[in-house]
Amino acid sequence: MYWWLFQDSRSSMYPHDTGSSDSSEPADPDQTIRRGRGRGRGRGRGRDTLRGVRGRGRGPRRASRGRGQPRRGAADGPNRAQVAAATLEERNRQLQDRIYRLSDCDLRGLVVDIASQHPEFVFDVLDRDDGQHGGHHPPPDGPTPAWCTCTYCREMPTEAERRCCGRTRPNCYSRLPDFYLIVLDEAVLAVARRLREELLVMPPDEDLNRANRFAAYRQFIVWQHGRLGAGIRRVIPSCCVWRIRDKYPNPFGQYKGFVGGRFN
């Protein structure tokens, strides 16, 4: 009759027998087994992976190239100056081969075309053996001025133009392969003249040698000093000036010379 009193008192005396959810042990024994297996597999894979990485890292290493050591074949190949000189030589050789293959009639026609487009060039070639010039054009085998150190300079008409490159004879600017490529090459000067004419909207100069001289002067200034700006001018060494004038001379030896700017 009072059986429920007995049940309540038993629950209060033995709380762990009531199946309460506060128990710390899991109710399902299979869950414990699954957790154990999962942890075991995870730890085993992690260790195996680390061991594999360590095993691969312990192998023999390749010998590293130290700093400053040249690469293989770097010193064996030609440098930039040699490549440029070889390119110019190959271009001139191909041009000479094409000229030699022309017949006499074709050669006369070629000379007539050149004379009609650049008459000053033809007159310069025809008068090349005439040594009488009305201007100042000293020969290359003349005496070396006292203010020259490279031995390639020649006497200049003004004191401002009497300037040497200041280098030794083998390292003179006028004898470097880069000088010939950047300052004297006809193809480079043609591109420089065309760019200047298009930017400044200038007509082409009818005197080809004079146009090439002025273009060569500008090429040397940009090569050595960069862009100077308006009113700033630099004197080109005498050795370089006469190398340019020998390549593109005036038939009468008349040259303008250096003209100072506002800040010179």
Task: Describe the protein's architecture and organization.
With 264 residues, the chain is mainly α. It has 9 helices and no strands. The protein has helices spanning 3-13, 29-57, 80-100, 104-117, 119-126, 177-184, 186-200, 208-225, 238-247. The longest helix is centred in the N-terminal third of the chain and has 29 residues, at 29-57.
Give the key terms.
single chain; 264 residues; mainly alpha; 9 helices; 51% helix
What is the CA-atom radius of gyration, in angstroms? 44 Å
Our measurement of the CA-to-CA distance between the termini, rounded to an integer number of angstroms, reads 130 Å
Number of strands: 0
Broad shape: globular
How much of the polypeptide forms β-strand, as a percent range? under 5%
Instruction: Detail the poorly predicted runs.
Output: 11-26, 129-134
What is the residue-averaged pLDDT? 74
The amount of helix comes to 40-55%
What is the topology?
Blueprint (H helix, E strand, L loop, with lengths): L2 H11 L15 H29 L22 H21 L3 H14 L1 H8 L50 H8 L1 H15 L7 H18 L12 H10 L17
Q: What's this model, at a glance?
A:
Helix content is 51%, strand content 0%.
